[in-house]
Structures are given as C-alpha cells and as structure tokens.
C-alpha cells in the first residue's frame, strides 16, 4: 500500500452491486467504505416519516436543520446509519425508501447538506466511496473512478434475491419496474444526474459473478496505486 490517502469513486445505477463490491474492495485494501446511497436513503426515510413530498424542495428543505445523521461501522465493517440517534440501517433498505432517496437526492439543498459529510470522510482516510455522482461531483479528484453497471434485468434479479432473503414479497416484474423508474429519475434529475465521469473506467458486471466483479475492481485499484506510488 502507498502511505498517502487513496480514494476510489464507484458510481453506477441502482442494483449494480456497487455497495457489495465497494465494501469487499475496501476490506481487501484496508480502506474505509462509505455508502453514500445509505446516507441519502436516511434523508428519504426522514421525509417519509415526516409525510413530506420527497419531490418538493419546499417540503424537504425545512426538515434538514432538524436532522442528525451519522454513520459508523460494525465489527464486521458494515456501515450503519443513524437518524436522530436511531439505528435505521434496516429501515432504509426497502423499495419505497429507495424511491424516496432518489427523489430527495435531486434536491440541491439536500446534496449540499450531505456534501461535507462525504468529503470529510475522504479527507480523513483512504476510502472506497460509492454512489451516483462521486466521481463527477463529490470526489472529482479521486485517484480512481469506476462506473459500475449491469443490465436492468441482471440488476433486478440481484435485488429480488436480496429482498426475498429478507422476506419481502416483491415480484421480479415489480422490482424491474422500480429499477427502470429509479434509473429514469437518477439520469434525468437536474442536480448531479447519474453519469460516468469522463475519466472513469467502465465495468459491466452483467455476466460476472460477485467474486469476478470484486477481482476486476481490485485489479484496477492495484494498477492505479502502483501508478501513483
């Protein structure tokens, strides 16, 4: 490892495996993993609980000053999210909150509110940070930028398996429809839309196993670390 802080930005659509892969890569190199999607999900959950229209800046912005959002890590390295002192790590992992997260993330005030939290994490440690605008907005100077994607069908299948494991009764068609709708929201929003950074390395995991995906990203990290050593 290099003795300088090293940052990896992984962007891509919902269900591409960003969080799982980023977490595994961070563990492999001893970096901190920052799941920015979970942070936006926490704001989405707050909006849901407040009965606020997540698409309305006028409804969501007044909530922000009263929110206390923080994250830490469990013994297994899993990022845990806290909203006003409550551990909401499980509560934010539902299709409904996924849509709320996508909606509130399109609000400029929400993005500004969370920007410092994300950049501060990268300033303190070597990180693997995943989201939808990490390489383009949050960490534009990241040492390595990756755009991780997969077909909508492959992503829906993976997400369905996760939901089934949690006892969720959603069907494949429902999950696929949510995935397509989320993609539309993320790529067309005015504030920091989902797109690959000009200097990002594209990695399509549609036909890769999880282990193969992790190894591919780890290889890219090693190559870039050698280049900046």
Q: In short, what is this structure?
A:
With 229 residues, this protein is an alpha/beta fold.
Taken as a percent bin, the fraction of beta residues is 15-25%
Question: Which structural class is indicated by helix and strand composition?
Answer: alpha/beta
Percent of residues in helices comes to 40-55%
- End-to-end Cα distance, whole Å, is 8 Å
CATH architecture: 3-Layer(aba) Sandwich
CATH class: Alpha Beta
- For the secondary structure, the number of strands is 8
Reported by name, the CATH topology is Rossmann fold
Compute the gyration radius: what is it? Answer: 17 Å
| Cα shape | globular
- Average predicted confidence as pLDDT: 91
For the biggest β-sheet, the strand order reads 2-6-1-7-8
Structure, described:
The chain contains nine helices and eight strands. With 229 residues, the chain is of the alpha/beta class. It has one domain: Rossmann fold, CATH 3.40.50.300. The strands form two sheets. A five-stranded parallel β-sheet has the order 2-6-1-7-8, with helices on both faces. Strands 3-4-5 form a three-stranded antiparallel β-sheet, covered by helices on one side.
Which properties best describe this structure?
single chain, 229 residues, alpha/beta, Rossmann fold, 5-stranded parallel sheet, 3-stranded antiparallel sheet, 9 helices, globular
